[in-house]
Amino acid sequence: MLAHEQLDSGPSKLELRIATTATRPVLDHVLILVHGLPRAHGIGRQAAGLLPELAEHLANESGWLVTSGTLSGVGSSTGTFSAHQWRSDLSAIIDRFDDGNRRISLAAFGLGGALALDTAANDERVRGVATFAAPSDLARWCGDPDELHQIVMSAGVVDPSIPLLDAHALVDDLLTLDPLGAAKVIPPRRFLIGHGSDDRDVPVSEARALLAAADGRAELRVIQGAGHWLRADPRMVATLLGWLDRHR
């Protein structure tokens, strides 16, 4: 079953899809799916489009409650992208599902992986993190500030009423996320690192850097022949389901 909610996060109104199942219910386990930052022209409204379907599948197969939230500026959520705002968005989603008893985990894609690591490093309510195609070197990922600024504008994750940060402030804001520093403090909580061997956007060496930062106390799964977009890859889904089942 897939339910719909709206959630306030500062100036933004976030769209949530919440998937549950009656067949294998594990009532105290929650998985929050976190999308990345769209980098193609006009794709901002579609960036999280596959996540509700993935949430339903994961819920039906694992028994977990699985939610996909679209962060500020993405999909039909209002607001404008920034690392600061997305950090607040993800915290608001965690607040929504934290009842003091639930075991909350994050599964995140692309830049969302860096955000999930940052959040988990600073929030002990997060009991596990799975990242897929997550960058560990955000300076490399950002590249030229002016080019990144134009990409974000072109992607359409900007609310006309909330101006996007200027180019250098946008990069400085993103660099407040520290994936390698966060990876050091995630263990002994559950930590899965998934990556495509042929990822041209985020080299697989960055996944290995996350593993090294965690002092080897994480699971690394390299999906052979896979590129950057793993959300629909059945091997990624199987990897994530196995991770969930081991922590029922």
Would you give an account of this structure?
Helices cover 37% and strands 22% of the residues. The chain has 248 residues and is an alpha/beta fold. The protein has one domain (2-245): Rossmann fold, CATH 3.40.50.1820. The protein has an 8-stranded mixed beta sheet, with helices on both faces. Helix 3 (111-121) links the parallel strand 5 (103-109) and strand 6 (126-132). Helix 1 (51-62) packs across helix 9 (234-245). The protein is globular and about 50 Å long. The mean pLDDT is 91.
CATH class: Alpha Beta
- The proportion of residues in beta strands is 15-25%
What is the CATH third-level topology name?
Rossmann fold
Fraction of residues in H or I helices: 25-40%
Radius of gyration: 17 Å
SSE pattern, N- to C-terminal: EEEHEHEHEHHHHEHEH
Question: What is the CATH architecture annotation?
Answer: 3-Layer(aba) Sandwich
Give the name of the CATH superfamily: Alpha/Beta hydrolase fold, catalytic domain
Q: Which ranges are low-confidence, i.e. pLDDT below 50, for 5 or more consecutive residues?
A: none
**Helix vs. strand class:** alpha/beta
Main sheet record = 8 strands, mixed
> What's the structural domain tally?
1
Give the CA-CA distance, first to last residue. 20 Å
Strand order of the largest sheet: 1-2-4-3-5-6-7-8
Mean pLDDT: 91
Find the count of extended strands (DSSP E, 2+ residues). 8
Q: Helix count, per DSSP?
A: 9
Broad shape: globular
List the helices and strands and how they pair.
Elements: E1 2-9, E2 12-19, E3 29-34, H1 51-62, E4 65-70, H2 83-97, E5 103-109, H3 111-121, E6 126-132, H4 138-142, H5 145-155, H6 167-174, H7 179-185, E7 190-196, H8 204-213, E8 219-223, H9 234-245
Parallel strand pairs: 3-4, 3-5, 5-6, 6-7, 7-8
Antiparallel strand pairs: 1-2, 2-4
Helix pairs in contact: 1-9, 2-3, 3-7, 5-6, 7-8
